[in-house]
């Protein structure tokens, strides 16, 4: 018996070992390539964030605050940084950054196969069928399209392990499996993508409800779920409490129905179940010249890709049809797979989508297609269940009939697909030949009609490769039942690997390298001794390629004022104009209002050469000298009729390459937005439009005219308000040139290369500075644009006051900490140019003092006269509370698991 058990263990261990070898073979091109395996968000977000974690672990600590982006952020609070995720801690503590980042992907593929194998065996599926099922899931589309979304694939793989422990719990009724299941789910949360955990919760709820009858009593079922929930909440409090605090400062969790509906799976994308690349690929001819057409479908394949192979899908369909009434597992996963597919379709089924939008928590996330990983997992379970029947020794007529059904199903797909492709090709050719006019000059999503003739033809690899795979699958099944099923497992694995390789291998499997060869980056790294901030000005998508763009600056250990962030304070966005990607549509306002960027410690500005003429022009103008071009004066804009706009306009003369200014003031706030803009023939830019929100009374905006301006341009005011808008004034002014003899140069050009230019802000303030006047805040911060922020500051909860200027000497500065010597004759006010956030504490000579919000973004303290040492430290209470709850939960787990033994020992004693 012991020999049999040892053989069984060794056999399973051998199969699991294969899971850790296969990814290296499957993605051999990545293994031998140099650079980071980081397409998409990986290059701009995940590699930089893991570099921060790696740096902290090298000092035997976990990072809590990072000054690299957005004036500093609570690094530990953003769940996507995954600092409590155990594989992250192990890999980044032991291995070099590049190796750890790259091989985490392969490691998680191996875990995915292993966890699926364990789950399938636990629900009674044959070892060989379970092994093949693990391979089918570890290389399925929903998992392998996520190379650029580290946190998503890290989180997905824990679903089968959670269910494995749940099945062990039901089978043994041992409470230790509640703990293990809770820890597995906690690990999924720590992995860093809450949306995946929410969707996993949906699957678990469904699974739990359908398992009630398998419990001895409803009371046991309820108590197990209560303990499971309590342990998960307690263990993850160390992450969820800081996350909730961070989310509270952002409106990221409050989304509109339109945003919620974005990236729903389109109905036409269902065809990718068979033809995964029929709508093209993201990166053509990569890594080999197999697929040549760029993606022209809706959304993108990273969100919509869920190809799971011809044989797994057809096996799953047969299992759902023939075993639905006979087998509970088949019933559960058939229903759950269908439900999740409908959920993924989202706005493609408006009624259901609107119902989902009303459900709390679920309505906090967009991209309903992200639930497709459960669809792929359902397909794998059903496929494995059907395969399990074929691997049984007793081969009967029923098995024979099911094989024939499967062959027929694949043949129907093969013949039907071929006929459909030929029909579409014929229709397109007919349209091209018979249509009058230059039809072929018209393009749809970058392709002409003749291009589509080639795309929807048997010559396109995205068409003939799936057809060939259908043919191979049919031939394989024809001979499958004639030979020993165990022997046929190997060609089956080979066919499935070949099938999934045709999709997963070609989706964004590219590498990215970070280099320091750019002379602009080299100059900054060499000369930025005070670690002043940089503004990588992103004016278009190509600007994200610059070395110091958000958040790639992290790899060069340079701080920037923008950043790629999951959560961003609303006040910061409103004042600076930055969005979560680090771009700024209102960058011109920031450049003109040098006061704001100077107080944010911004010494260097990198911008593309196309807009460098704008910053050169700024050095030659005087914002205080303007000429009125048009003024509507005191005017009442009538209420709009029905849904139309109420509009008034005046024709004006606009000069090219010139600065202008909009300014408006209302007698009282309107109920809807008021728009002010310039409009002409092919002259309508958002940059030359100002929107006054319903709560606003007064606003101004500068803009730069285009190099080509039409003769007829109109200065317009318009609104959809149902009430009249009483306007005190609405002006268009031209900004005049300065007297060059007295004009101080604000931005000095240092260098440029073929794409970018580097400028130095000559009026930059250091990271900590003093002001001589504070102004009581009204929380709108609208005065900032007209203030001298080198001397003045708006302070929340503080009265107007005049201070003496203090001498500030910064002596120590690092993430989450700064120290300075302060010297002043009288009372002074010190501003620390770091994000105002709960958890910061300030000390003057060791005595804690209150911190005030300054200019809506920064921190400030009051310091008495004399010489003092001041310190700012980040020591968040939410993290402390999380640790306490975590420790209490560990104690609860110990008592919960060993309570019977403890009780027996006490009774004996």
From TrEMBL:
Highest taxon in the source lineage: Bacteria
Keywords, comma-separated and alphabetical: Membrane, Transmembrane, Transmembrane helix
InterPro entries: Uncharacterised_YfhO
UniProt keyword Transmembrane, yes or no: yes
Residue ranges of the TM segments: 7-28, 100-120, 127-144, 150-166, 178-206, 226-244, 265-284, 304-324, 331-352, 364-383, 409-428, 462-481, 488-506, 881-898
Biological source species: Cohnella lupini
Protein name, entry field: Putative membrane protein YfhO
